[in-house]
Design brief:
The chain contains 5 helices and 4 strands. It is of the alpha+beta class. Helix 1 packs across helix 2. The longest helix is centred in the middle third of the chain and has 18 residues. The chain is globular and about 50 Å long.
Amino acid sequence: MSKTYTRITYQVIFSTKNRRPTLWKPGRSLLFGYLGRLLKAKSCRVYAIGGTNDHIHFVFGLHPSLAIARLVKDLKLAATSLIKDHPGLFPAFDYWQTGYAALTYTPAAIPNLVRYAQRQELHHDSETSRDELRRILLEHGVEIDDRYFV
């Protein structure tokens, strides 16, 4: 075959260090837009980016030349750089947690994922981000090691 064909849809979630609520709402659209442009520059198809004051959800199609671990590292580095370059954006932000969740989905799940990512604030009226992540991981059959589940 002379061309590579893929459709790898991911939801990636990562959190601020110790889930500190440092991503204040007024600055999120700038951060999310910046990270969306980075994903597009890496030939990923961006469906949605959303989050709350302590974590971010990304829904995107992964380009076949990219490794998910390297892409997440690049997203965290770019986000940190943007935040440090704009000191008033999230003044209390210090770091991202080391880990992340990266889960794959079928194309049929994309509309629900997009709505879910875009409505993060509503979801967190009744569920903490920690509980949300635990629930999502368990729904996907991912084993959780409580020693590292912060």
